[in-house]
Amino acid sequence: MKKLGLTALCGVMLFTSSTTAHATERLLPGLGNTGYDVQSYAVAYDYYPGKTQMPASVDITARAEQTLSSFTLDAVARQVKSVTVNGLAADQQLDNAKEKLTVRPRIPLLPGLPFQVRITFVADRSLEPRSPSFPEQDNFDHWTDWNGGFELMGQPNRSHLFFPMNDLPSDKARVSFRVSVPKGYQAVANGTLRSERTKGARTTYVFGTRDPIPTHVAQLAVGHLTEFKGTGPHGLPLRSFIDSSKAKQAGPRMALVPGQLKWVEQAIGAPYPFETYGVLGVGGVTGYALESATLSMFNADYLTAPPSDGDGTMIHELVHQYFGNAVSVKSWDDMWLSEGHAAYYTGLYQDSKGQRKLVDFMRDAWQFESGERPKYGPPGRVTDLNGILFGTNPGGAVTLYALRQKLGVQTFQTIEKTFFERYRNKAASTQDYIDVVNEVSGQELKSYVKAWIYGAKTPPFPG
Ligand SMILES: [Zn+2]
Question: Which of 22, 171, 232, 340 fits a 20 to 30 Å CA distance from 358?
Fold first, then answer.
């Protein structure tokens, strides 16, 4: 992200069953469940203009990590109508205050075995409870309605307002959206258009991802949208969408995307990781942009501004497709691995385009980081919600810059490429990054990196 400005069970089962969430997130306790691992979500909505409620369903495929007589999903909904597990009706209880749906399957789930859950529910875009851990800091609409349509902003812990899920950044899954809309409306979501069928006055769009993505970058937009198609490096299909009322002015910025992809591939030393890319320009997005997987989201006004105004934010969100999305963070305490890379490569890009010297970019970041660390906390141990969303950008970037200055450009580039390739389609932690640094450099740099990531004070500016 970038700121811009069961009922009766035998005793054995009860001993090993699990209904509660596991405390895996230091800042967002209660979020997620480590008792199972999700492989895919297939979400369906029927959209009706002027109504916030949408008939909805989600089909989840997952694997039990332990015996489960019951399990929870993160969820907020107007109503849950029915739940089946492996085709059999299950008991269910929705608690919107706790943001949990508890499911008791007819037959307990066994460790290592796959299971399917089907939930029919009523989604309601007027249900916007604030983040339970930091209600005073949750200043965004997450169901973002604008101009007769809507889009999603789930980062870091609000995507379960959209559909029941395991809302942990480490539990990646393939996501598809099947959305029916009336005439004149389009729907677009992560991944590739799989089908588009019109029946009577309604059209049903199905979009899905080829690869697993973290839940916080799930995206679906409905509205009056105009599509820009193109081709990127190696024939990569590009598709971007913008609010149709702004489409006429969007051409120059849309034309930048193939060149940006080429630059980022060369800088990171690895091909773009997903099956498609594009940008989404919509309303209701104020003061931020979001790295929605395969479809970075911006305010439509940013995408219609002249390219001479700078395209650093486009680079930032594109780099997140590598770091943050393809390599996701194991916990929110590792968010600097996502934001730090997005900011670092933005600095490198601006330097390569003669816009600003890398050292100046990094000195500004270091100065900001030194001043803000007492407020946000160190990048690996931020103090609050704003820290997760925005506080790890400069500190993470300067940490990477410090390593580059210490080890030299070539060794640093090998670290980056190795880390990306090793953790692509997986989740990585700070320790995972340190292990790659040590392995590639042949040095013991654990305490050096830890001072940057966890220290109470920002280390001196490199060099
Ligand atoms: Zn970011």
Answer: 232
147 C-alpha vs ligand 1 centroid, how far in Å?
Answer: 26
Q: 455 CA to middle of ligand 1, Å?
A: 22
Q: Measuring CA to CA, how many Å separate 387 from each of 286, 334, 337, 460? A: 18, 12, 14, 21
Q: What is the pLDDT of residues 8-53, one digit of tens each?
A: 233 233 333 444 545 579 999 999 999 999 999 999 999 999 999 9
Q: Where are the domains of the chain?
A: 335-454
Q: Cβ neighbours of residue 100 under 8 Å, at least 6 residues apart?
A: 21, 30, 72, 73, 74, 75, 94
Task: Please indicate, yes or no, whether the overall pTM of this predicted structure exceeds 0.85.
Answer: yes
Q: Is residue 35 within 8 Å of residue 65, measured between CB atoms?
A: yes
The CA 200 to ligand 1 mean position distance, Å, reads 42
Nearest of 229, 240, 324 to residue 282 by alpha carbon: 240
Q: Which fold has domain 335-454?
A: Neutral Protease; domain 2 (1.10.390)
- Give residue 376 CA to ligand 1 midpoint distance, Å: 16
Shortest CA distance to 218 belongs to which of 281, 275, 265, 157?
157
